[in-house]
Fold this sequence. Notes:
- The protein is built from 18 helices and 15 strands.
- By secondary structure, it is of the alpha/beta class.
- The chain folds into two domains: 13-242 and 458-469, 3-Layer(aba) Sandwich (Rossmann fold); 246-452, Rossmann fold (3-Layer(aba) Sandwich), CATH 3.40.50.
- α8 links the parallel β8 and β9 (236-239).
- The longest helix is centred in the first third of the chain and has 24 residues, at 120-143.
Amino acid sequence: xxxxxxxxxxxxxxxxVASNRGPVTYSLGDDxxxxxxxxxxxxVSGLSAIGPDADALWVCSAxxxxxxxxxxxxxxxxxxxxxxxxxxxxxxxYNGIANSVLWFVHHLxxxxxxxPVFDAEFRHQWxxxxxxxxxxAEALATAAAPGATVLVQDYHLCLxxxxxxxxxxxxxxxxxxxxxxxxxxxxxLLPDDIARQLLHGILGADRAAFLTRRxxxxxxxxxxxxxxxxxxxxxxxxxxxxxxxxDFLRERAHRPDVEQRLTALREQVGGPxxxxxxxxxxxxxSKNIVRGLLAYEHLLDTRPEWREHVVHIAFAYPSRxxxxxxxxxxxxxxxxxxDINSEYGTPTWTPVVLHVKDDFARSLAAYRLADVALVxxxxxxxxxxxxxxxxxxxxxxxxxxxxxxxxxxxxxxxxLVVNPYDVTGTADALHEALTMEPEERAERTKxxxxxxxxxxxxxxxxxxxxxxxx
Length: 470
Ligand code: G6P
């Protein structure tokens, strides 16, 4: 097929990563100054594995006004290209399709008597999703050196591999899904043409990879159902279970800012003998924070011996606040936490310590303090918090873990496993976790930490590059 782009000459990138959210976001101050904020996460540390000399390029999207202004002023990080995609197009693709349709499908979040509704508005948003994917495909096609390797990330960019393959057949293309993949029957909610487009888009890659075998198998099943066996001919489906970055976490968790927050948290918890149940999440519909609080309430209700002796430290950081359903969910989390505190709290004991302002150092302090880690998502690609807490906790922690989190595949043996919908079952698991003998807890934590760090981000990233090149 004739390609629209002449393969560019030297100085073009040999390794490219594409994702909606890049490593840096900018905010625009009232005085017109731009402030850069560097995000964490597996991709950022994974990319650092290829070193500064490699000709690597990270293509991402401008997310807000700060980012757009940075693009206009030509401000940016070396090795990062931010695309200033029209704001309405981005909003329709990101809020409309990626976060309100694809995220919902893969996490089974719809209330099906009323939603989804695939109407004209949806078709309009889908056209924006195509435009937004095309902008990425074209930017990658322009920037990639002949034969370069391109790693496309996540559900925002499902169409990119197919579009890029058409423009640049010489490239090696991988797609990685950081989310679960929907079961066949649920994926059938999507209009057939859309389902096919998504699957064809990803299968434009040489290799489609997932966080666990379960999600990889679900993808294969959907591809067989909608496209038939031929669509998978010559395609490789891989699994790379992203692990925690132990060296980074252990060092970072002992810096002065974390120590300072640890002292403040200890004060909020009160007495030194009080146990802690810790959760740290984005306030995300799939994280199941509300049922976690209800389980804790049930524990206090049915096992009064825990009153005054345990504190639930719940960090629920803002996420996707452009969507009303996320704002409502955030409100519900606050309300239920307040209800528990008014019903059970005493002048000397606050049962739930809820923080909603993102603070990484405080999260690490909570990890160190955790006697019990509560990770109970409805469904989750992996859940790195489940992997990070055992690595960082000072005294070892018992992990209450949803069987629907990707992390369950690697951590299930040493966790207390729950059905995330079962509130009383979760309360029982919390009780069991709180009463676990210290020796058993320490032994389990050791094994959890080993499993959690089996594939650190850098290795996770290099494995994918090797698999694509091999
Ligand atoms: C999940 C997705 C990521 C996304 C992150 C935060 O982990 O897999 O692609 O970046 O959530 O969501 P946001 O919408 O804030 O980027």
